[in-house]
Amino acid sequence: MSTVQISAADVNKLRQQTGAGMMDCKKALVEANGDFEAAVDLLRKKGQKVSAARSGNATSEGLVSIALSADGTNGKLVALACETEPVSKVEDFRNLAQAVLAAAVANNPATAEELSAIALEDGRTVAETITELTGKIGEKIVIQEYVNISGEKIVSYIHSNGKMGVLVVFEGANGADITEAGKDVAMQIAAMNPVAVDKDGVDPATIEREIEIAKDVIRQEGKPEEMVEKIAAGKLNKFYKDSTLLNQEFVKDSSVDVRKFLDNTSKGLTVTAFKRVQLGA
Predict the structure, then answer these.
(1) What confidence category does residue 114 fall into, taking pLDDT thresholds of 50, 70 and 90?
(2) DSSP element (H, E) containing 39
């Protein structure tokens, strides 16, 4: 057993550096025989063990953060996920979410893997920092999704619960102020969850599935076989109207679809891409 006397000042110093609990810091210093750096390593290993133990746990809570470039041509979204809602409200978790987003803005990584490898101000990578906070809090924490999207004009929306975010790429604004219209479309995406911008963006497998489901329903209704294809095509068009953004009825004015609403806002204005991220979905 160690005979080294561990002072309260040493414990506090270790706590300030690592963010770990007082008792964990004291235990690490005792185990490390007073060696400060060894104690830091022990606490990091503890975080790795907790992270490994909880690797299979569901992460349905967390925080979605968004940053837009000054010129509005790039948007970045980070969805930092945890297991429970109380942890998503903890200051350390929220600070980490902002630090990860800031790292994304400063370094412009293309993927979540690249983002995880970026070093933060204290020299630790994003991945190491997440592991250490996992050890401190005792819950699995992951970057559930990272989005880096560019275009003529990006508009963003974050839902009031902080668990859903939307980035929308607009083209054809021609200098018009589309802030309000863009926000309306972003909120429509949040509420209606379209599968694509337009018909040609729908996954062929999805189209095939919709057609087959429609045919089965039509046959169960006893319709003649020669009518099945025609009725199925009509149902597919209904699917496009309900599930693709530009063809959806505009939520704030059902007399027009989103395509028409945008064209009325500024001739030629359209959406070319969007990304909707929801924690727990």
Answers:
(1) very high
(2) helix 36-53
List the Cα angle 92/98/99 in 5-degree steps.
85
Find out whether 67 and 105 touch, Cβ atoms under 8 Å.
yes
Tell me which residue of 107, 80, 109 sits closest to 93, measured CA to CA.
80
- The domain locations on the chain are 8-54, 55-150
For range 114-124, the mean pLDDT: 92
Secondary structure (3-state) at 193: coil
- Render pLDDT for 224-245 as a digit per residue (tens, 0 to 9): 888 888 898 899 999 999 999 9
Q: 40 vs 24, 67, 247, CA distance in Å? A: 11, 33, 56
Right CATH for 8-54 from 1.10.4160.10, 1.10.8.10, 3.40.50.150, 3.40.50.620: 1.10.8.10
- Topology given in CATH for the domain delimited by 55-150: Tetrahydropterin Synthase; Chain A (3.30.479)
Q: Which pLDDT belongs to residue 1?
A: 44
Q: Which residues contact 148 (CB under 8 A, 6 or more apart)?
A: 74, 75, 76, 104, 108, 109, 110
Q: DSSP string of 92-103?
A: HHHHHHHHHHHH
Q: Which residues contact 78 (CB under 8 A, 6 or more apart)?
A: 64, 65, 66, 97, 100, 101, 104, 115, 143, 145, 146
pTM: 0.79
Using the 8-state DSSP alphabet, how is residue 262 labeled? Answer: H
pLDDT per residue as tens digits for the range 14-46: 777 666 667 777 887 888 878 877 877 776 676
